[in-house]
Structure formats: C-alpha cells, structure tokens
Amino acid sequence: MEGSIAARPLRAGLPDGLAQTLADLLGDRFTRGLPEREHHGRGESYHPTRPPDAVCYALTTDEVSAIVRACAGHRVPVIPFGGGTSLEGHVAALHGGVCLDLSRMTRIAAVRADDLDATVEAGVTRQQLNAHLRDTGLFFPVDPGGESTLGGMAATRASGTNAVRYGTMKDNVVSLTAVMADGTVIRTGSRARKSSAGYDLTRLLVGSEGTLGIVTELTVRLHGIPEAVAASVCAFPSVEAAVATVVEIVQCGVPIARVELLDPVTIAAVNRHSGTALTEAPTLFMEFHGTAAGTAEQMALVGALAEGNGALGFETAADADARARLWRARHDVHYAVQALRPNGRVWSTDVCVPIASLPRCLAETRADIAGASFPITTVGHVGDGNFHLGLIVDPSSEAELAEAAALNDRLVRRAIAMDGTCTGEHGIGSGKVKFMDLEHGAAIGVMRSIKQALDPLGILNPGKVLPDEAD
Amino acid sequence: MEGSIAARPLRAGLPDGLAQTLADLLGDRFTRGLPEREHHGRGESYHPTRPPDAVCYALTTDEVSAIVRACAGHRVPVIPFGGGTSLEGHVAALHGGVCLDLSRMTRIAAVRADDLDATVEAGVTRQQLNAHLRDTGLFFPVDPGGESTLGGMAATRASGTNAVRYGTMKDNVVSLTAVMADGTVIRTGSRARKSSAGYDLTRLLVGSEGTLGIVTELTVRLHGIPEAVAASVCAFPSVEAAVATVVEIVQCGVPIARVELLDPVTIAAVNRHSGTALTEAPTLFMEFHGTAAGTAEQMALVGALAEGNGALGFETAADADARARLWRARHDVHYAVQALRPNGRVWSTDVCVPIASLPRCLAETRADIAGASFPITTVGHVGDGNFHLGLIVDPSSEAELAEAAALNDRLVRRAIAMDGTCTGEHGIGSGKVKFMDLEHGAAIGVMRSIKQALDPLGILNPGKVLPDEAD
Fold first, then answer.
1. Contacts of residue B471, Cβ cutoff 8 Å, sequence gap at least 6
2. Of A1, A192, A465, which has the smallest distance from its Cβ to B385's Cβ?
3. In a shared domain, residues B191 and B314
4. Residue ranges of the FAD-binding PCMH-type domain (chains A, B) (predicted)?
5. What's the ipTM?
6. What is the DSSP string of B396-432?
7. Are residue A273 and residue A330 in the same domain, yes or no?
8. Pairing mode, if any, of strands B108-112 and B283-290?
9. More exposed terminus of chain A, fewer Cβ within 10 Å: N or C?
10. CA atoms of A215 and A461, how far apart (whole Å)
11. CA angle, corner A88, sides to A84 and A92, nearest 5?
C-alpha cells in the first residue's frame, strides 16, 4: 500500500495572510511572543524545545475548525497542545507552524450520573473533572502523572495507576468531537455502551496524537466510587520477588485496582521529595476496591502471595488521609526523580510486555543498566506489564544523551522481541518514531494510507507517530 | 471530505481467468455448485439469499492473500464467510463475486495461560476454544447465540450475554492478522495489555465487517474461571419492573456477569423449545462471578433491589447443571422464537441506548408494537442498554416485511434520538446501511475516506457498512 505524505512541502514560517486571519479571529488569544512560543514547544522530558511560529488559544470547537481551515489554506502545520505534559516530543514544532492550545476549553458540558458518563471540553483535566464529580459518588479513573488535559490524554491513549482495573483512555472514552484536517467537525459514536455501527473512529482518534484530527470534546465513562477502598505498602527483598508477586496476583484474577512497583532509588527520592519514611527497598503500592468484605478478601489473598515471595512486611494505609498521601507521593514520582539531579532531565522509558515476560524483561534490563553513568530509577504499572526507567541525564551532555538513547534502544528491542510494545502509555511523538517499523512491520503501510486519506496536506502535527518515508 | 468508492465498476460474473486461477490454487476447495453458493449467500435472518458466483475454502493466511490478490486483479468482489450466523445480510453477494469461507481455518495456534491470551485462526468458534481451554481454568467470555466463528465475531464487533462484565469483541481482541485489499498481510498490535504505539488498527478492523480487510487470525484475551458462579432467575409483574431493577443494578455498580431480560412470549417459546417450566412472566436471567462470599453479597444486594421492584420470586439455580440448562435455553432463544411460527423468519432488531433511557425506550417501543400483525418477542442484554425484538415475519409476505421495516425504522430513530445506536452487536451489513447517515452525520465522510484509502477498488464486501454515495 503506497501513500506519499506531504508530497507537496509544508510552508515554512507564518505567512502574513494567515497571521492576519488568526489575529482577526482571536484577538489577543493569538500571539507570536517568544516566551509563549517556547513554552508551547516543549513537554516535560529531555526533548529539545522546538517553538512554533505562533500560538492560538481556542475557546470553542468552531474556533478550532476556523483555525485549522485557515492553516490548511496556507499549508501550515497545526500542533494541538493541552497540559504540556508530553514525554515524547509530541508538541515540538518540527516543521514550524501554529500551536493550537486547547487548555482554555475547560467547560464540563454534562454529567449524566444515571448513565455513568460525562461530556467535557478537551482542556478539562482529570483533577478538575474529579473535583466537579465530588458529590456524585462517581469518579474518572485514568490518572497519568501531572496536570494533563483529557484531550491530550485521549490523543496519547494515556493510562496510569488504575489501568489494571479500569482500563486506559481506549476503554474510557465513549465518544469524541473532533476537527478534521479540512476543518470538518465530526462526532464519533453515540453514548450507547456498545455498538456495531460502522468503523470505530473513536478508537482510531484515541492515540493518534493530533495527526488525524484534533479532539475538542470527549464523552467519558464514569465509575462508582467503591463502597470500600483499602491500600497497602509492601517491601520486598528484591525487585524479582516483588514482580513475581504481581504476576501471581494477575494470574489469579484478583481484581486489584492499583499495583505499582518502586525500586529503592525511587523510594529514596520519594522520601526526600514527599516527606515519607518508607523502607528503601523494592516496594509495591497497592489499592483494593470493592465491598468491605471483598477488599478484605483481596488483601488476605495478596498478603499470602506476598508472603510466599518473602515480603518484608505488608502494611495497610490507616485511613483515607494516609491513602491520599501515598498516591500523591506516587503521582509526584516524576518530579521526585527529577529532583535527584539538579539541572538533570528525566528520560522516561515506557515499554510494556505480556505479563509472563515481565520478570525476564525487568531482570535483563536491570542487568543492562547496572553500569550506567547517570542515576536510573525503576517504577512500573506492573499489573499491566508496563514499567518506566527514569534516566536522569544532563541534557547538555551529548555523551549522556547518546548513552541513554542506546540503552533505550536495547530496551525497546528487548520488549518488542517479547511481543511487547515500545510505549505502553506515553505515545510515539517524535521520540519513538524510529521504532514504528520494527514494531508494526507491514501495518505501517496501512497507517500511512489512513494518514494520507484523512490529512492529505500533512498539516496535522507533522513528524509525529509515522516515520518519514525516506527513513 | 470526499471519496468515490468503486468509481470504476466492479466486474459482474466470474471471469474465466479468475476461475482457473482459483481452481489451480484450491482444487476442490473452489466450487461453483449452486447449493453451496446458496448456502453462502444467506445468514440466519429475513434477508433474501444472494448467492456468490463461487465459493473458496481457504486453509491458510497465505491462501487468503492469494485469493484476494487474484480477485483484485480481476476487480471481483470478495465476501468473507465464517459461521453463516449473520443477521444483517453481511454475506449477501450484492454485486456477485467470490465468497471466501474461513470456517476450515480452525487451528488453535497457541494458548498462553500465563499471559491470559490465546491465538486462534479465524474459523475457530467460541465453543471450540472453550472446549480446548477446559483444563486451564480459563475461558473466553464473548458469546453471541449460534456457532459463530471468532473471525466473524471480530468482524461484526459481536458481544452477547457476558458483555456487561467482560466487554465485547472490541475489548477482548488483543491483536489481529488480516489480509488487506491488495493481498498484503498485516498484524495489528502486539500482545502487550496496553500500548500507545500508533493508530489502533485492531479496533479499526474489529467491526469493519470484511470491508477493510479480512481477519485470518486473532489473539484474544482469556479470563480466569471465577472461584464461584451463581445464577438466579427472577420473574417480575411487568417489563418495567424488571428493567427498573437492571438500571439500579448497573447504577449501583454491582459487577454482575450476566443480566438478561425475557418477556412472557419469549419465556413461553423457551419452555416449549427447551423443555423448561419457567413462569410466563417478564423474567431476568442473572449470573454472578467472584468468590463465594462475593457472589453471595452480590446476590443479596440484587435480591433486595428486585424485591423493591415487586419481584415475584428470586430463584437460585441449584448447581452447575441447572446453570448450564438455563444458559443453553437462553442461547437457543433465536431458534425457540423461530419455532413459534412455522415457515416464519425472525427479524431481530438490535438497538442499544444509554442505560437511563432504556426504560423509556422499551416502554415506547412496546406501546408501538402492541398492534403488530405478527408475533413479537422481546429479549435483551439489558445491563448494556441493548435489546432485541424478534419480529416473526412471513418472508413471502410483502405486507409483513413492510410493516416490520416501518416498525424497525421507528425503533432505530427512537434509539438514535436518545443518543443510542441502531445496532448494539449484530452489525450494519446491508440491512442497516440506510441508518448510517442518521447515526453518524459528517463522520460518514471520514469512514468513506478510510474505505477508499484501504480498498480503492471497492472489492471487499461491497454494499456493506457504508451507504452508496448516491443514497
């Protein structure tokens, strides 16, 4: 299958006519100021800043459509921007163009508690949504670290600590409103819990990273806050023992809500950053959802499995406050790790493998990194087979960046050889484009045909997800 | 967005050159005999038989690729065929062409109990897979009625009675091997539980009904057989009372495994067909999965909700045999209903609406059908908001078919107005193409662009899923 993406070159720089159109449309919500452009040209990882030529702040789907149509008319790239928490260079303006910031679209259009769903604009964060849901007995479970927007989370198919029980954005987005490359506004799917009516455009746009369309509104599934929630912290003599426990939990079908691995280096960083006093050993943070009796049953079973693997202790968080502190500490790991090295940047790896291969993948990886010349942390959503190394590099050191890249390269090849993926939840962006052929083979041709069909000018977030054909 | 599907006309009839190629390739697995062609031109519903020009039985992915390539060379349609259980005319050869029967591809390539997945060829049925899994402690949950193949179930995004707990084919297919319109073989995704690596081709092909590619192999998720399984039958004074109970079960977040509604006409049909002695009243069939204590808790809560809605009795199936008889009877409803009228055919409707709208949708629908001139049954996967009317029509009566079509038309418009879908699980086929514009609006243009990009000659199952542009 052939497709020639952006056969006609994209326009470099910002044509005067386009600048005028956008200024007329948006007033002071259109800007070419350098600080704002630089802020919009980087995420939270090691990728260098690549500022766009201008930034537009949209307030409505119609404005997004008008901006895209104007850019299409001038063949100028459009790069959607949410919370700026990308880890793989998704927002870098590799070919210049206009950054379309959706973070001001923060309206919660509807909460339908009886249907267990809500419709929100793309700029709403999970924190905002959950605060809004406070009195309904419902919550939205997908929880990447940071203040990500739901639009950005849909675009990268994000997940987090609850995915082992509640699934990822793929499972929790019911329907989307999106602006396509020619400005057409579509809505994907209905609010029915299931449907066999045609192609699943919702799932096609989820994870497409703004390269096929721009998500402006989402309907998401909500879940009932469980009657009982219990949390545990369990230290182990080795990473291997902790992971063996997790594999057994999954294989036994325990409906655990969260099960997170933190290695000793990470625990030390958390203790320093969050003021906790955890034992500096490989540790699982766990959470159990259900009825009071059900969570007690789950904890008893998991406690027995942990003991069988030589656990050093199985402590239960005393109350809701202790639980909240525990998960706040877990969510702040990225920042805790970053604080380990002043002026360092965290290069977060993200492989995910079938659960039975996780112990071997982790063991081989930890052997491989033993001699690294910079600090490395290991944390993982291990119930999903997904873990992150935090490579804390000096971004000004070519040698360290090269060493990190080589290490990540070996890790990704190891995971793909185990029938896993180069990214469990961070996305491809520009950082992992080079692994797409290896992971997908001939299927890349199909992805390319879809991109070519839906964005024939190649203006939507160019350089992301798909390798250039010359590669 | 524009796309002109099959701008160049498809070839009518079977060119001699193609017949020779296929005969050379397949020997006696290529046939032009009328009985086999007729068998392959119909499903299990009211749709008239539309035989293909020939039938090919493939044994391998490579053979499927060769057949598709040969047909593409002659611009002849290819219609995939599995168990022949389609309800919406999916297999009708509307433009002639070659039926590609995958039902002999029945190899179970791998069961990876430790990873909770299995890889099977497209012709494997769920019954075959579950029999094969007997000693592993695992099962595959998706269970449409009939002996459907897993390939066909993926193609129609099928579900069944377990979807309320375990999801549909969308949630239970991990990865696919598929043959695209030019014969290219692709594999979609890895076996990782989650991934953010590019466009979700798995979910794009699931539900595409053979119009974008032909599924030849699937990796599916397996689930642990729960420690305890309990089943209940509960009769109610009215359909309204039964449905009110279901809505409360879902809103309370009870993790019920199955909850099926059968109206009194259906119960009578089941009693006659399956030799049961159920009270002829609106009835819920329910199943609970978990630990012994957990299922007991669920049943106590559901029993209380049922009592609050005036249940006439809440009976528990005594043992595994009684449970098996109950669900066998439920799965045979299609045939039980068909037996209500000799020479009748069942036209099964399939709307699905958000759960809070289900009571009103059912009430308005039951009022609408009160004066129908043929028998009508109501059954439903009500935990999903999905129900089926069984319109038992005389297929030789134009008047009855017109009455059924008008009734279904009103039902579909009612469901779509409630933000529901025309089909929860049966698919679009040719039978519901006319509702696609109403349900999807501008998104149809995007679907059309994808179809045009992936099947530029329009040879894959033409006339299905998407309306002709002239419509």
1. B433, B434, B437
2. A192
3. no
4. 48-225
5. 0.96
6. T-HHHHHHHHHHHHHHHHHHHHTT-BS-SSS--TTTT
7. yes
8. unpaired
9. C
10. 13
11. 60
Alpha-carbon span A112 to A118, nearest angstrom: 6
Please tell me whether residue A243 adopts helix, strand or coil conformation: helix
Tell me if A167 is assigned to some domain. yes
Statement to judge: residues B334 and B290 lie in one domain? yes
Tell me the pLDDT tens digit for each residue of A19-44: 999 999 999 999 999 999 999 999 98
Strands A78-81 and A54-57: unpaired
Taking the CA of residue B240 and the nearest CA in chain A, the distance in Å comes to: 17
**Which residues, listed in sequence order, are joined to residue B387 by a DSSP beta bridge?**
B380
Spans of chain A, pLDDT less than 70 = 1-8, 469-471
SS3 B54: strand
**A470: CB partners within 8 A, 6+ apart:** none
CATH value at residue A342: 3.30.70.2740
Residue of A458, A247, A233 lying closest to A356 (CA atoms): A247
Residue A4: predicted pLDDT: 44
In this structure, the dihedral spanned by the alpha carbons of residues A405, A411, A412 and A415, taken in order and rounded to 10 degrees, is 180
Q: Which amino acid is at A168?
A: T
Contact B192 A290 (CB under 8 A): no
* A248-258 residue pLDDT tens: 999 899 999 99
**Which residue range forms the structural domain that includes residue B142?**
108-224
Chain B: closest CA distance from residue A176 (Å): 11
Measured between beta carbons, the chain B residues lying within 8 angstroms of A109 are none
DSSP B116-135: TEEEEETT-BHHHHHHHTTT
Tokens of residue B97, six digits: 């062409």
Reported as half-sphere exposure (CB side, CA atoms, 13 A), residue B23 has a value of 10
Q: How close does chain A come to B65, measured CA to CA in Å?
A: 14
